[in-house]
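Researcher: Structure prediction, please.
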Amino acid sequence: MSFSAGNLGFKKAARGSYDAAYQLATYVLSRMQNSGILNSITEIEVVLRGFGQGREAVTKALLGGEAHDIRSRLVRLTDATRLKFGGTRSKKPRRV
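Model: Predicted structure follows.
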């Protein structure tokens, strides 16, 4: 399964909002429960990458009532955020 906030009707900058991430997380969780995939899965591992509003929204959705059946199968919640040690100079921030 592959989903994005654009599939749910969020356009442009709204795709990166907290609300879009939360609705996407609840949509994916409900699709897992409704499609019957959950019956064949015994363990679920969630890997979070990056900082921002989406990370908080997914954790809230996992802790909420939408993920009641999935939470019992959740084995590991890991962080795979890439951190830069030194390296090349980054691009200057965009000014709006």
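Model: The chain is about 40% helix and 10% strand.
Researcher: Thanks, that helps.
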